Amino acid sequence: MQWTNLSEQTVYENRWFRVNLADVALPDGRHLDHFLIRLRPVAVATAVNEANEVLLLWRHRFITDSWGWELAAGVVEDGEDIAAAAAREMEEETGWRPGPLRHLLTVEPANGLIDARHHLYWSESAEYIGHPEDDFESSRREWIPLKLVPDMIARGEVPAANMAAGLLLLHHMRLGDG
Known about the structure:
By secondary structure, this protein is an alpha+beta fold. Helix content is about 20%, strand content about 45%.
């Protein structure tokens, strides 16, 4: 049962996103107007050290008025390599420069409304280079034992679904199911 986007027009845009209105044909022949948001890709990065601790940021999101643990993340600039953007974001937001990044997963956090793909990367090493340039992004940055991640997610301390998915996968890869 595939929906078909027959056409769309931009109703608002700025340097961060576009809001479009699509004419969508349903499988039964009916049409509906559907709003959608077009975004640039998002690059996300973290590191897991030898002690199986993961680098996280504690931050407030004013939109949902919630606090939670997150990974460093930001939009990929035009023409920028996604992994390079992930490394840049981690360095800017945490003060830690990741070692070689490995792709963890790509998710579509709200694919019924937004076309953004979030590309998550991780490294097995990181070098502290100094206080983060973008320290306004978070209240603190900490190395948290990976073994605590599932309980943190269950308590709602990692509210963003993309971050929770990446952290659970890292937990599984590094520590297994036990």
